Amino acid sequence: MKKILKSTLVVFVLFITVISCSKDDPPTPPVEYEGAELVSRNYLTADISLNFLMDDVTVNSDLAYAFGGSGAFEWEVGASSVTFSIKEDDIGVLFSADLLVVKDRSYYSAVVGPYPGGVVVFGENDLTEPATGNVRIRFLHAYKGVDLVDLYIGGTTADHKKVTNLDFSDFSNYIEVSHADVSAMIICTEAGVLPDLATNLLTIEANTSHEADKIYLDALASETIDATSKFSLFVTEQ
After folding, report:
1. What is 32-125's CATH number?
2. Per-residue pLDDT of the chain (238 residues; tens, 9 = 90+)
3. Between the chain's N and C termini, which has fewer beta carbons within 10 Å?
4. Residues 29-34: contacts with CB within 8 Å, 24+ apart?
């Protein structure tokens, strides 16, 4: 009985103390947050699914190879950085880093290459819309077995070479091309090698995967988790 009375008394005293202090102290202002978008892709050539987190809150979850997602994340106003991390349910944290982000922006994150030894890429998405009838594309080189590559869009002549010397784990600049050109042809070659069906890494004709007036994030990666499988293009609308 004494223990119950003692516990009750402590609660009562604390209650009185809190009430009396609250009369003198100004109310605590609500915490304010800022937000942005995170687009994530898994090009890690391993049979594992990945979770992408910001400040230990999952934004995009359970992404198998070549799958992706997008979601909003937020941070407290005044915070100097956010902690970006990638986790696998059984392995735990694969990557973690503090990053500077800006509110109302969109960011792209991906993991490319083999496991272990994969590379994490992170960058800001450019939301500038293309001119009417055009398409804007940024390429990511995610095929570990090939070094520098060139990309031709709409034809095989020099004026159709739109990306030069793109290295593994790098983004290209955004390029803007007509919808007619990207629908006609996309070719990827090893850097400095002229287009030829016998040597092209990738040849796509009568392409129907890009729509006019849109922005895309396209990845050059192996078709499956087998790092030596077919050199392929994964098209994602930004």
Report:
1. 2.60.40
2. 433 332 333 333 333 334 344 456 677 878 899 999 999 999 999 999 999 999 999 999 999 999 999 999 999 998 889 999 999 999 999 999 999 999 999 999 999 999 998 999 999 999 999 999 999 999 999 999 999 999 999 999 999 999 999 999 999 999 999 999 999 999 999 999 999 999 999 999 999 999 999 999 999 999 999 999 999 999 999 8
3. N
4. 31/76, 31/77, 32/76, 32/77, 33/74, 33/75, 33/76, 33/77, 34/74, 34/75, 34/77, 34/103, 34/104
Provide CATH 2.60.40 ranges for the chain.
Answer: 32-125, 129-238
Note if the bond before 26 is cis, omega within 30 degrees.
no
CA–CA distance from 157 to each of 170, 187, 195 (Å)? 24, 11, 8
Q: Which CATH number fits domain 129-238: 1.10.357, 1.10.10, 3.40.50, 2.60.40?
A: 2.60.40
